[in-house]
Amino acid sequence: MNELGRLEDLPQDYRDDLTKLNLVPLWPSLRAVLPPKVPTRKTQPTFWSYEALRPLLLKAGELTPMEKAERRVLVLANPGHGLEKMQASAAMYLGMQLLLPGEWAPSHRHTPNAVRMIVEGEGAWTTVDGEKCPMSRGDLILTPTGLWHEHGHDGDKPVVWLDVLDLPMVYFMEASYVIEGQRQAVKQSRGDRAWTRAGVVPSPVFARSDKRNPVLRYPWADTRAALQSLAADQPDLEAVQVTYINPETGGDAQNILGFYALMLRPGQSLTLPARSPAQVFHLIEGSVEAKIVDSRFTLAEADTCCAPGYEKVTLTNRLADQPAFVFIADESPLHRKLGVYEVR
Ligand code: 1HN
After folding, report:
1. Whole-model pTM?
2. Ligand 1 centre and the CA of 318: distance in Å?
């Protein structure tokens, strides 16, 4: 590849003339924005221990009342992007949110899409577009773009969940904003009952006006059972994985980020191919080692780590006598829509 001209090779008066007219020569910067063969990735393999962050999150519960926080969250930030950017990867934001008994996180709606993976505690709920979704360990609850959502807690112990948002992407697009609102009236609808049973879905005899994903809550008990059935039915299947989908379209549950649950059989080691999107791994159950580039992370339950795109990842179930269950979020829907998705 040719050595390209540097900025310093150009006379200063010429550079000054360019600057005055808001002009920039491409060639000195071309390799920086178009590196050979593999993109430059700021996303570093990063690990967040739940045991280590939990006391700091509970401390935030003492230090900062809900009225001063709106959402009480410690952001899982990737140092490769700079902590202040609050990014786990180019398109993904991660945060651990705490709600204490009796607290309420007021209703709002915004353009970034969010999901919650419930980590700890019982008795909390989130109301999304009028549908009250109970929160239990491992449940996945969606708050798609533009829908009202608020969180409440009727239990007696702290509740913690992992928020995954496409905020960095939507912010980069200069499309991120919020509207604050009133407490929602609760409807009787339950998308997880009407849309996820027996291989049947509601038929649109009269046109549906609502184009959003009809499922807002994916109960962990059902997802776990699906994985165990898949493993039992297909003993030779290497990757026992399911995708969280919109049952009306069969497509991804959300537009920008993809969500999956993976079961590792007892003792199984699984190498995921190098694909263009970055990924996040959160351990729901078991004990797993994640090998990502030069890092080896040992994930205990509720631990989280991330991997840059274009790298293989090896996940190993460290237990010989029980399966492990991993929640995965990635940027696949975005990469596919943009036409840059690759498996290497
Ligand atoms: C948000 O609305 C929530 O509703 C959590 O719980 C985290 C991070 C950035 C922007 C909006 C929530 C968020 C957020």
Report:
1. 0.96
2. 34
